[in-house]
Each structure stands twice: as C-alpha cells, then as structure tokens.
Amino acid sequence: MLPEARQDKLLVQEVEDELVVYDQERDRAHLLNRTVALVWRNCDGRQTVADIAALLRNALNFPAAEEALVWLALSRLERAHLLQERRQRPADAPGISRRQAMRQLSLAGGFMALVPTITSIVIPAPAMAASACVAFAGEKVDCPPCLGTRCITDSGDLILGSCAVLFNGCACHFPTKTCVLS
Amino acid sequence: MAKIDRLGWAAGLAFVTYGAHIGIRVNDPAVVARLLPYLPPGWKPAASPVVDYLCSLWVGGSARPGLRHFHLLHGNAALVARTLVLEDVCDVLESLLHFSVALAARRRLFVHAGVVGWHGRAIVIPGRSMSGKTTVVEALVRAGATYYSDEYAVFDRHGRVHPYPKPLSIREKPGAPPRKCPVEELGGRTGARPLPVGLIAVAAYSPGAKWRPRVLSPGQAVVALLDNTILARIRPDIALPTLQRAALGATTLRGKRGEVQEVAEALLHGLEEQPRPLPQVAQCHL
Q1: Rounded distance, CA A18 to CA A118, Å?
Q2: Which of A:51-110 have CB within 8 Å of B?
Q3: Distance of alpha carbon B157 from alpha carbon B143, whole angstroms
Q4: Chain-wide mean pLDDT for chain A?
C-alpha cells in the first residue's frame, strides 16, 4: 500500500513539530502531533508503510517505531479525512490499538508523547464564537446550531437568537424575564 | 434589504474603529445622542457613509390601547431584536456593534477572550460567553494587572495583542444581567500599547475545583484560540499564521478553576516566573 495525503482544500500551519491542518471542506481543524505529522508529510503515494516506519525510526530516534505504529497513524488520518482515498489495510498488516501503542512506548522509555494522536475541533461559525447573542446559556459550547431560535420573554417580546450557544434552558439576560424556546 | 430601506430613516451615524466601518440609522433623530455610550471603544466618526455593517434601529412610538409599538433592531437585513423596552434593544445593539467590529475589522484578528497585561506581556483567557472570563479579568485587574479587554483579544499579524477596552460586563450573580463597570471603578487602568502573549489560560469554571493546570503544546494553544476566533471559518488563511505567532512565545495552561482569587494569583505568579523571550533585533539596511 502506498498511502497518499490529501492536498486539496487544506490549509497547513506548522507549529514547532506539530501541524494544524484546516479542512476547508468540512470546517474542521486537526492538530497532528509529531508522529502523525511525520507520517502525513511522508504519505506521498510513493513510499510504503515500511519506508515510512523506517523514516519514523530515524527522525524520532526511538526504537519502537514498528509498522503497526504507522498503521495506527494512518487509521487516525483516514478518520480525519486527511488521506487521498480509503484503502483497505492488508489482512497480514500488523495492527495495534492506541492503548497498546501507549504501553509499548512507555516501556520503550517515556515516549508516550509520540503515540499517534489527532485532536479535531469543528470550527465555530462567527456567531458561535461571539457573544453577540441576546440570550445566554451555560458554558456548553458543542450544542447544535440554533440560528433563528426564538427567545420569547414573559412580556411577549421576541428576541431572535443570533448566537448558537442559545439552547434548551437558556436564560435571557434581561431582568425578570424568562426565555422559552419556540 | 430594500424593504428595510423603504422605512423612514431620519438620522444616522457612521463610525470607524479597528478599521471596521459601521453604520447606525434610526427613525428618530433624538435617539442618536442616546446611543453614543453604546458605541465600541476607539470609535471615530467616519468620513464616508459607506459601511461594512449596518444596524437599523426602529424606535416604536407610544403604545395605544390594543396596539403595541415594538422597537426593532436589524443587523444588515436580519431582524435581531423586537422588544417594547428601549434599554433592552440598546443592550442588544451594543452586543451587535462589538460583534460587527470583530467581523469587519481590518488587519486585526478578534478572538473571544479576556486579556490583561502584566510586566510587559499579555495573559489571554479564551472562552465563550458565560465561561467566566470577565470574573478572572476582574480579579487580575484588582490584583494590579493592566486591563485590555473582557471580550476580545485583538491580534495583529505579529501575534501581539491590542487593547479592546470596553467597560467590563460584570454579573453580580449567575444569570443576572451584566452591569457595565469602567475599569477605573476597580482601581485599574487600561493598556495602550500592543503586548506579546506571555500566557494563555484555558480555565473552565468548576465549583470547588483546585487550579492544577496542565501545560499545552503550542499546537494545542493554536487550536484553543482557533476555537474562539470570530473569523476562523471565513479567514483561516489569516487566523492560522496569526495565532501561531501568538502561541509560539507563550506558555499555555488548561485546567478547571474554582475560586477566582486562586487562579488569578497563580496566573500572575506563573507569568513572573517565565523566562522573557529574547528581544527582537531590528533589521539594518545599509
């Protein structure tokens, strides 16, 4: 298998030895740790998994860089839609879970930070990132977008929520008025 | 927008702040002077009436039996508020103006965060509404830090933070309406010059929690800031390099906080102990 990194509609920002990859198609940002960043950078469609594992061993100078670790990184990248196309892992390819990788790397002498990880967030729409809303909720931030949700005060006034942090149980910030969601 | 334009607009004002041109139009000229305290910090009258964002405030007349005259507020073409209380609609207008500045600002990136200055560096506390930013900022200012903002960290392309010194919106108790509080009332002062970021604190409030933060990598710091960046979706090409520059010189901490006093002291102390970044050497052109 010759894994190939996706290139289109991605913005890549190097931050020391990590990569922040912005997916403009899905409005998601992914933080690739050093190991995944190295694997992704070398997914050029020409190198095999074994080649990448060898590169990893040299670049990171750690003994436990088996192919299984590359496969784990590739599965993370695939889940984040950062590979060109979904490819079936060969049946005889060595597999490893994240937990097993952590155990292996900790036994290898404190290489825990090199366990392949991708941290992903959904990038907020402008209204979600702002506090321009007229009704506020708690600090829960991963609520579904609710643009157009109406906040009706007990005097019958209508206030349109322009903010997606407005959700069930919201409290209007105007005194003595309670909000209900229509 | 044509339908709104056909209403009888009698007066208005256009202003510029942070490079954003914002307009407000009203149907009652007497209201314009009343709106001035709600304008964003640093505003100046604009020479041109062409604006990036237009707020339209329709002040309802006096109510007659069986007939209610609502005050209406539109942001561009969208109805934002409809209420019978003029103070309420003015509060919404104020929020909308801050938001429109963040959207339309030029050469500045707005991140939803509280900011103070301490010994020449900025402490940035990113977070959404109701996450307790203002509470932490208030405690830091009372402890002697310089006030920059309780709403937005305004970054330039070098990753330095500029002040956005609106009055603090302090809630006396959870769920209560915010009270506008000038920083001088807290015995603090407002910063004037841009600062490099020294510390980024992602502090979620949890009653009774002890502040035992873990250190995040610069990449994790960029993601934490990106999650609160107003234009992250619209201009990621600007947001990513700007936030990278901001995060690289800073220490980033994430944790749950309980009492605000404890976290404020820890943040100030933590920044004091950090090594200062090397001064930037000016390039010489011979």
Answers
A1: 10
A2: none
A3: 30
A4: 69
Enumerate the residues of chain A whose CB falls inside 8 A of the CB of residue B218.
15-16, 18
Q: Any CB–CB contact under 8 A between B130 and chain A?
A: yes
Question: What ipTM score was computed for the predicted complex, to two decimals?
Answer: 0.86
| Nearest alpha carbon to residue B42 among B191, B168, B164, B148 | B164
Query: How far from B263 is each of B138, B140, B143, B201, B211, CA to CA, in Å?
Result: 12, 9, 11, 10, 6
Interchain contact, A173 vs B223, CB within 8 Å: no
**Reported pTM:** 0.82
User: Reduced to 3 states, what is the DSSP secondary structure of residue B242?
Assistant: helix
Selected residues 43-62 of chain A with any CB under 8 Å from a CB in chain B: none
Helix ranges restricted to H, chain A: 34-41, 49-60, 67-79, 98-107, 126-129
Query: Where does residue B227 fall: left (phi above 0), alpha (psi -120 to 50 degrees), or beta otherwise?
Result: alpha
pLDDT in tens, A134-147: 333 322 222 223 33
Q: Which two tokens stand for residue B284?
A: 């010489």
Q: Do A165 and B237 touch (CB under 8 A)?
A: no
Say which of B128, B236, B248 has its CB closest to residue A24: B236
Closest listed residue to residue B101, CA positions, set A165, A131, A146: A131
Q: How many CB atoms lie within 10 A of CB A92?
A: 5
Q: Which of B102, B220, B237 sits opposite A11 (nearest CB)?
A: B237
CA angle B82, B130, B209 (to 5 degrees): 160
Residue B248 to residue B196: CA distance in whole angstroms: 10
Q: What is the mean pLDDT of residues B60-73?
A: 76
Amino acid at the residue B172: E
Contacts of B229 in chain A (CB under 8 A): 124, 129
Residues of chain A positioned with their CB less than 8 A from the CB of B222: 13, 15, 20, 31
pLDDT of residue A147: 31
Q: At B172, is the pLDDT very low, low, confident or very high (cuts 50, 70, 90)? A: confident
A22: contact with B, CB 8 A cutoff: yes
